Structure prediction request, 423 residues.
Amino acid sequence: MFIDIVKIYVKAGKGGNGAVSFHRDRCVASGGPDGGDGGKGGDVILQVDDHLSTLMNFRYKRKFIAQDGKPGYNKKCSGKSAEDLIIKVPRGTIVKDASTGRLIIDMSSKDQYKIANGGVGGWGNQHFATSKKQTPRFAKPGVDGEELNLILELKLLADVGLVGFPNVGKSSFISVVSEAKPKIANYHFTTLIPTLGVVKIDDDISFVIADIPGLIEGASDGAGLGHEFLRHVERCRLILHVVDVSGSEGRDPIEEFKKINKELKRFNKELAEKPQIVIANKCDIATTKDIDKLKKYIIDNGFSFYQVSAITTQGVKEVINEVAKCLAKLEPIKQYEPDPIIEFEKEIKNNREFEIVKDKEDYVIKADWLFNILNAADLDDYESLHYFQKVLKTSGIEDRLKKMGIKDGNTVRIFNLEFEYLG
Prediction:
C-alpha cells in the first residue's frame, strides 16, 4: 500500500516544575532557598530519512508526544531536560498546519526541522529571594510544550515525470532507462505506487525519473488513482507523455493525449505549462499510418515527438539524450516556500486571554493559563501569595474586576479556589 498523505498530532514536552527547597546543614543556621530549576521539555523534530519512500509508518501511529522535563531538586540542582522526539519522514514531505492549512515547511532541502518547541523549565525558589523576602515558599511551574495537528503530504522529488493512460508502457520504459524494476504486466493499473529511477547519461550527468501510475479521465476529480498521484507530477521539471501509438487497447492515441493534458490542467494549471515531450510507444506493432497521424497532431500542437519501442529499446537513447538537454536549460526542482505567520496570530498566541463572569455577587475568572500558576502557588505563604497577586495585576485581571464594579468583601472564584477581594 502506498500512503502519501496523513494527519498526525504532535506535542512537545512540558518543562519541569521549579523546586521549593531550603538549604539544610548542621553548620549553617539559615541556608536560604536552594530550589533548582525544572528541566526543558523535549522538542519534536522532523528528520528526513532517504530510505523512506512513503508515509506508511504513520498508518497506525498518529500521535507523537515528547517527554516532559524533570522537576528541579534541592541544592540548586536543575532537573534533567527531556530528550527530543525524532519523527522520520521521506524527503519531499510537505508539512501543513491542519487547523489553518498554512504550509510550515517543505522537507526537500532540509534534513531536520523543529516543528514543536518543548516548554522551558520553571524557576526554583532560589530566584525569588530578596533582601525583604528571604524565604520564598513558591516556585514557577514548567511551561507547556507546543502542540499541533499536522498534515504530512508527500510530493516526489523527480526531474522527469512519466504520465499516460494505464498500460501504455511507462513501467517498461523506466525499467529500460534506469535500474528501477517495477512490476510489469499486461493489465490496467499494474503500477499502484510511483516508481523512482535514476538515469545516468555519463559520470557527470544524471537525473531522476518517476513512473506516475496510470491516469484516467476524471483523475483531477479523484477518479481512479486521481489526486493520490497527480500531486507527484507537480514538482517535475519536465513531463514525458507516453502514448500507445498502436492503439492496442482499442483507444484513440490522440484522444488519450488530449484527455491526459486536460486532467493535468484541471488539477494544476502550472502542470499544463511544463515542458512536455511526447513518446509514441509500441511503434514496433503500429502501422506507419498510425504513427504519421499522431506525429502530425503532436508537432502541429508544438510538442516534441519521438517514436520508441520500450520492449526492443528502439529510439530510447535518443529520447534520454533529448531529456538531458532540456533539463540543462530548466530551473531546479520546485521547492515550496513556507507561508508567513500572520502577525495577529502571533499576538493571539502570546496573549494571556481571560474571561470574567459575574455570578450574583461573585466574580468567576476563566483563564486556562492560570491553572499551572495556581497549582504551584502556596497561598498560605506571604511571598507566594504576593507573587500570585502580581500575576493578576500584570495580566489585566485586576483592572477588569475594578471596571466590573467589584467591591471589598466580594468573592472571587478561580477553578476550585475562592477568596475574598480586598482592594
In short: Residues 79 and 95 are 33 Å apart (CA to CA). The chain has a mean pLDDT of 82. The chain has three domains: 1-156, 160-329, 352-420.
